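job 3f2a | input accepted
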Amino acid sequence: MVVDIEGIIRCIRHGDVSSVHTQLQEFNTEYAQCFFFDAEERDRRKQRKLEEFRKNKVRDSTESDSDYDVNDQEDRGLLLRQSLAAVLVRFIRTEVPCHLLRVTLRTLRILSRDKRVLGPLVTDDALLTLAKAAGLTTNETNDNAVTNSDSDFYDNIISSLTEDIKIPPRCGDADDDSNQDRSTFEDDARSEACSDPDSISLPGSHRPSIDATHRGSIHHKELERGRKDRRESKMEDDYEEDGSSGDEVQRKEALKVLCNLVYNSTWAQERFSALRLICGLRERLSSSISCSPPSSVQFYELRLTFLVTALRPELSTQLQQEAGVSILSAALEGCLEVQWKEQYECTLDPMAPPISLEASQRIIEILKILFNVTHRSHREAPTESDAALYRHLVAILRLCMLRKCEIPEDTDELQGHTVNLLSALPLQCLDVLLMVPLEPDSEQCHGVNMACVHNLLLFMERRLESGDRVKEKLTPILNLLTESCRAHKETRHYIREYILPPLRDVSQRPEEGCTVKSRLIRLMTHLDTDLKHCAADLIFVLCKENVRRFVKYTGYGNAAGLLATRGLLGGSTSRTTCSETLYSSDSDSDTEEYRQVKDRVNPVTGRVEAELPDPMEGMTEEEKEEEAKRLIRIFNKMSRDNIIQPMGVDADGKLVPMAGLREDCLIEESTSDNDMDQVDKNQ
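job 3f2a | predicted structure (683 res):
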């Protein structure tokens, strides 16, 4: 079905409210699950046609006419959508009935998916109008100057649509500059079009998921079904059935439009900051805490807050300075229905039902916002009031690690964002995770409750098994466990028993097998430097940063990377560590099984190797000496030719180039060259 966009504009011009409502509903139905082509897709299509033209050397005239028709249709469609966006922004500033306002905002949401149409939507007046519809501000936006009888504006729009669109000559795969002229605000926009906030997932930086299949028309493509399927099973037109009031539906739609604009336009981000709309957003979040049950609009308020704090660092700082942590912590309490037992202890009811779908999504958004707000405080010493605030938050986060969601995927995502936030908080405030009395069935170590630490280990094990996006998923949990082991000896003892149990069977290399230890040791030789250092640091701390013990559990080959980085290749104790940790002096007792084979363990591979025959067996002393000289000559020649560079370990335990092998131990140069030539021939 082809929607008559020009007809919609004419109906708005003549004040035909009934027809406007009907035609906008038709537009929304047609494009509800679609978004329009972006410039990059069009350029790729042009490039493919150009390559086909060069391949065939000739182009059929009918095909060429068809291409011009396609471009003409696309350019006109773009102009129509831009004009419709400008008209609708002006239209909602008038006295529009509530039911029509909701439909209009839904149309704007669909239009805001196309970054080339954003020009009329990112002006200050447009942003303030949308913010007012979302309940973020009560400022008047020149409402008195906008009336349905303002015919000049509509006449100019309609006259521009009736003019012929001039298409610039096509030359190779040149860009269409006419589209850029129409949306001057979008020069800094992202290269990818934004999807609806219902269909995007942003755990710091995620792109919309879009189906590459084109749907019917050349003007739009179909959206892939996203998170909304899990959060809301109803169709978009059935808002009233889920108990949402008309005002809530209006605010929800306006917030979705703002989410699209902020995500898709750097100019909108800058103006959002300059217009101080974050203040109204903070007030909305603060006032929604007392609502029970929470309003359905709260999720989109949280989503918008996450976007602006992730994309504009000054807004995350502002939110932190304006009691953002306490507001968001209170919102987190409301979603989890927290009941306090002590100052920093939440009641954990084992019979409590799993966290609902809607609550889990709100919790995840809150955790992401809190990370944006607090991640700079990790290395800073908190004030007394901040420390109390963070400990209060950590007590709630402990509950997040122990509670389950209705869907296992939600549980894993919830725990992942909890780990990210714990990694961002000051380390001294994490002692709250252990300040819980022991319970009959709880994990414990030396009388300390380890239930939360146990869940962290299980979470790490699941991430080790997943195999995809390894660095993104594993780095936060590895860093958190490493820092926790440095700070709390009970945590270190418990994690060491879980990851590095006493050695008994050394018939396999340490990296072989499917245990947690073997998986972590395999990461120590991973191609990604950050990831391998994180894995090595954790095992090194579990070995109390003792080089001999570290090599014993991992093998010298796996340990060499970290030892070289820290200057410990000489085997000395670490002189400079990442912390001022003072470890106890207890020794690492060997098991009876390990003591029996200890002398036969290869320190490089970390296992008992099969005995190999002596290569020098049966050789005389003169033959051994000659073989040694031959090897020295080989190494010397490779060094002179820059094939290898001999290295040694200095007094600080670091690798340094050797001065070179001296000619004292070699025979005359001419003889050695002749011998080397003979060796090369034999090889």
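job 3f2a | The chain is about 55% helix and 5% strand.
job 3f2a | closed
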